[in-house]
Amino acid sequence: MHLWNPDEPSTPRGSIVPFSTCLEERLREACEELAISWDRCAGHTELLALCEHLGLEIKEEVLLSLNGDGVMNVQEFVSRAVNLNKPPTPSASTPYRQLKRHHSTQPFDEGGRRIATSSALTSTIGMRLFSTLDDGTGFTPAEYILDSWTEEGIENGSEILQALNFDLDGKLSLGDLTMALENELLVTKNGIHQAALASFKAELRHLLEQVDREFREKEKIRSDLEKAEKLKNQLATEVDEHHSAIEHTNNLKLRKLEQDHKEKLAAARSELMQEIDRLQQQVGLQREELEREMKKTREDESFLRDHLSISVKENRRLEMELLDSTEKLVDAQSQITKLQTSLDNMMKEKFGDLDLGSADFILQEERFKQLRNGYEAQCRELQDRIDELQSELQEFHSLGRVHQPCNKPLSEELESKSPGMESDPGIGSEEVQPFSLSLEAEMMLERLKEQHFQEMEELRNQLESKITDVDQMVEKQRATHEGQKAAVALQHQQEVQALRDEIASVQSQAQELQSQLDQVELERDCLVKKLAEEREELENLQEEEVGNLRQQLLETHTYAADLEDQLKNLEAQLSETDVNCHSQVDELQKQHAMEMKKLEERHVKLSEARLEEGINKLQEEKAELEKRLLDDFEREKEVLRQSHEVQLKAKLEEAKMMFDKEQDEFVQKLTEQWGKERAQLDEQNNESLQVLLEEEMLRLVKEQEQKDAKLRKQWEAERAQLQQQHEDAVLQRLLEERMQLQEQFQQKEKKLKEEWERERLQLEEDYEGMLDDRLNEERKKLETEKEEVEKKLKNVMTEEMARLKESHRDAVKELTTKHSEERNTLSSMLDKLRDDFAQERSEVCRLAEENLLLGQKMTALKEEDLKEAKEELTQTLEHLKHERTTARRVAETFQKQIEELHLQRQQLKDENGKLSEKSSHDIAEMEDLHQQLAELKEEKENREVFPAEDKNKVTKFDSIESQLSHLLEERKSVDKETQSLRSQLAKAQERVKAVDETSLAVNHQSARLKADVRVLQKERDSLKHEVAVLHKRLQNANDKHHILEMALHSSGLQNQSKKRLKDELSRLMEQEQVLLRQENEQLQAEMRTIKGDLVQSREKVRHLDATVLSLKQQKQPNHLSLVKALEVENAALKQELEAQKEQNKSCEAGQGHTTSLESLQQENEALKDQMAHLSSQLLESFQAHLVGLLPPSPHRIPRGQHRGEDPDNMQGAMPEQRAAHADSYRRIGGL
């Protein structure tokens, strides 16, 4: 900063005064050098830099005047800074003011220092006045000088300049002006002025010398600072090299650890994949076996359904034949009624003259009445029987529609219920990029290892749970299949019984029809004989009448001559009466034709209207049914879709929740670990850890997306499959209902046609009766007219007799033709009835053959059921053998895992030695760092004399000290890692002990399994014997049943006794089948109890493992004692390894003993269950982090107890069943 000058024009007078042009130009130049705009605002840092450049001191008042954003106008800021730096203005009357004015007018250099100007007055000082008015040329106008003097209170400036010989119009030389003023001061012989001038000069000289000295010291300090910077840079490079060397060694160690971790992960993954492949193979084999069983059962179901469909078709065909026979009977009855009416008319016409009260006529009428009553009673019985058969058929159809097929194969069901194995999310890819980590990153790798092991164990647990779920599902499907099988067998037996009853009823009806046909043939023969006799009598009567007529003709010829005149007169009257009669007959015929047409049209219209109404109703019903079915289909489809979507959404949400939880926990753990390490590691390590964290996050996100995609695909596939199945089922239902509707429509059309034909026949019969009545009335009228004409025309008998003869001949001819036609129709009807009877006989024979076939099929089905039960037992035995082999494999894998544990223990020892070497190396490095720190402290003490600018270096030294403390903390973490490794060694020892105890438990339980095998062998032999006995009894029962059926067919027993015997036989057969089912159910219940015991034992083992884990979590290991006893434990571990080898040899000997058991025939059914149980127990104990010994549990129940109770139950149940069988066979023998 420049000194204060009261005479300077820019000096304020109690307020802010604008800058002068020269000062403003200098300030502008300084702003341009610092790249700051003079007219605009600037920030805090830029303003501070400008003040440092100008040499101004800033006070807090100026800083407080800044805006909230820390921005202020540059011009305003400089004016305030300059004004605040100036002292208050003193009076201008002192000589000090003049000297100060001279001093203040010295120009500034770029660093803010004044530049001494040369003058004639003082060459040493080199001072020049009016530097503020100098524009760089050394000249200034006289007006500016006068203005400055007037501002300073000198009013006679022009006179002073003129006294000093300067021109007032042009520019003045500032150097000349200063020299003139100094000369004037020297010329004035005032001692005070000269003393003041000399003292000011001396003071100024002294100040300049101090400034030069300060400048030299500043340059020296600058050089010292440069040397210190060089030393600091050298130290920093050395520290960086040291850190790089440490990081390089750490990277090498981490790469080794990563390589080891990768190898271990690869080994674990290969073992996991082998186990998964083995389990998948086992599941595939079980699935194939179950699919074979399901295929077999479905083939049996299809076979039974085919039989049912065949029986239903046969029943329908029988129904149709019965309907046809009823229709034929109705036609025959209508024809018989027609014949009866025609015979009555003929009898009336022919025998009207005879005595109706004669005995022969009365007997004939009574005979006809009896025949008619008998036919009517038979027709009623047949109609009742037809109605009963129709109701039974409807019930049978309703029962046949209940069982719906199951078209879904087992493979699809298992695939939908058991999702595929997913990739292990915990195990990363093998090709992990190497990254640089510190020593504490090893802790994270160990944690990741533990997490991978936990996830592997969770996968194994999930596989075991899925296998148990599949077994339970298979058992449930077997139970449901057996229930369905029993229901189908019962239904089939009921249907067979119903068919037998129907066959018996049809046979009885056929016999009744046969007897009726025989009676009809006898009656026809009688009628033919009677007709022949009547014909002969009619011919005799005709001959007699012809003789009498001839005699009468001869008599009338004589009488005709007399009556010719009268005839001529009467011919006119006869012609008139003939015309009238012809006209009346024509009118009657026309009326008859019109009425017939009207009746036919009315009947046709009525029938068409009824048909149309029926068709419309059927169409409406059909449309309504189709609409209802479509609505039901859509509703069921929507409900199924919604339920499936809800289930899938729930599953997806559960899976997402689980995955989100796992992901959050995993991310939280990772973030905590990385947060701890981030606080301790350098920037490079932070970047590498951040990259690793991002890679882990990306991998987790990718796995989540893959799982979501799999779940979506699975959901879409299941939804498409369900939709396809539902659509197929609904289409099948629609087709079946359409077929039913078509059949109903056809039946209704048939019924309508039959009703129409019946009504038409009835109308024709009514019309014929009406015509007969009218004809009879007309005949009566004509006869009365004839009698009147005969009374009037007694003379015209001859011609009338001739006409009568001719009419009689015509009538006889007509009667003979009618009689021959009726005889032909009767013969054709009898032929048809004979053909129908022959067909019915053939059908009855065929039905009897089918009945025999059905009986044979029933026996075959029963034998097949027994065979299936045997096959199921053999399959279960084979399955148990397979499970024992799998248990042996698991034991081998367990031994391999024990060997791997020993290897891991050795690796841990090696790692412990490496870590001890590493800790020694770190201790040496720490000692070096301590030495460096001591040297730095000494330098710091030496440098404390330096000014405040060297404090940055001290802070750097403090950072080095913090790094040293960080290294100390790393050493502590390494010590903790060594302690954790020792604890892991102790845990490995405990695991080895636990494995030894489990191997001893396996040897103990193998002895128990042998006893169980023997017990089950005895039980199986007893079951085989009982099955053979039951098979023989069934064969005998079937033979007796066949013999009884043949006897019933051959015997002439009545219908009630036949039905009673058949009902008794069916009841006995049902009792036999129920007993067989009960025995099968008992066997299956025993199998279920065995499997339930297995599940309970597995649950108990899991419970024990959980308790062991909880106890071990409560126990906190004493690390100090473990550290002290580490060497002792290493020696003990060697001894335990030798003991473990001997125990493994003993286990192999025990396994050789178990292999000797395989040579026995089917002796190891129960041993499989026990070995599977032990394998699952060993796997669960191994998967529980291989920690803790299994304590002896009081809840564990030996397998022998469960097995010991089953044979007693079976032996207790078998005598009751045998007694029931004996009672049933006694009843059959009594029948």
UniProtKB/TrEMBL annotation:
Any one Gene Ontology BP term: microtubule anchoring at centrosome
Coiled coil: 197-399, 442-814, 863-946, 971-1177
The entry's keywords: Coiled coil, Cytoplasm, Cytoskeleton, Phosphoprotein
Cellular compartment(s): Cytoplasm, Cytoskeleton, Microtubule organizing center, Centrosome
Region Disordered, residue ranges: 85-113, 404-428, 1190-1231
GO CC aspect terms: centriole; ciliary transition fiber; mitotic spindle pole; pericentriolar material
Sequence ranges of Basic and acidic residues compositional bias: 1218-1231
PANTHER family per the UniProt record, alphabetical: NINEIN
Full protein name: Ninein
Organism: Solea senegalensis (Senegalese sole)
